[in-house]
Design brief:
about 170 residues; alpha+beta; six-stranded mixed β-sheet; 5 helices; YceD; DUF177 domain-containing protein
Length: about 170
């Protein structure tokens, strides 16, 4: 069965037209047909932290009752109940609910993905643990002009740092 369009969430989903692998069990019950199964789908998307592409497979279980239209329950079926349409069962809404509701809203390429540097945007996994930026908090930037020109941001004077002294 090919996947319909928009079969996923914002960051990850099933590619349109991809093959869905279904393992179904159909049981005749008094009210209709009970469908129990598992769907396996290919997933494509991007990591929510580092934006690298993700490709994997996903499996979801489902169970749904499709009621006969000529039974008392089928004639008075609620809007949220699924009905048999002649001899046909429309599995798309059931599969969509099973897969889309179980997908992670923030998929990760790996569990410990460090993401991107908020300052320069480089992947932190590539940059390594020594990657950092000497950036002052922008909320304090207006006060920087109040410092005397020979006073360093840490409060010391340049000549004190050279000689190893500190005024206190």
């Amino acid at each position: 069965m090919p996947a319909p369009e928009d079969f996923g969430v914002e960051m990850v989903g099933v590619p349109e037209g991809a093959d869905l692998e279904l393992d179904l069990r159909l049981e005749a019950v008094l009210e209709g047909v009970l469908v129990t199964g598992t769907v396996r789908v290919p997933l494509k998307g991007e990591c929510a932290r580092c934006l690298d592409p993700i490709a994997s497979t996903f499996e979801a279980d489902f169970q749904e009752l499709f009621v006969y239209p000529d039974t008392r329950s089928g004639g008075n079926a609620d809007d949220d109940e699924l009905r048999l349409e002649g001899d046909l069962i429309d599995l798309e809404p059931v599969l969509r609910d099973a897969v889309v509701l179980a997908l992670p809203l923030s998929p990760l390429c790996r569990e410990d993905c460090p993401g991107l540097c908020p300052e320069c945007g480089v992947r932190l996994a590539d940059a390594g643990p020594e990657h950092h930026h000497e950036a002052a908090d922008p909320r304090w930037e207006a006060l920087r002009g109040l410092l005397p020109p020979d006073l360093a941001p840490d409060g010391s004077r340049p000549h004190d740092r050279r000689e190893g002294r500190q005024e206190g």
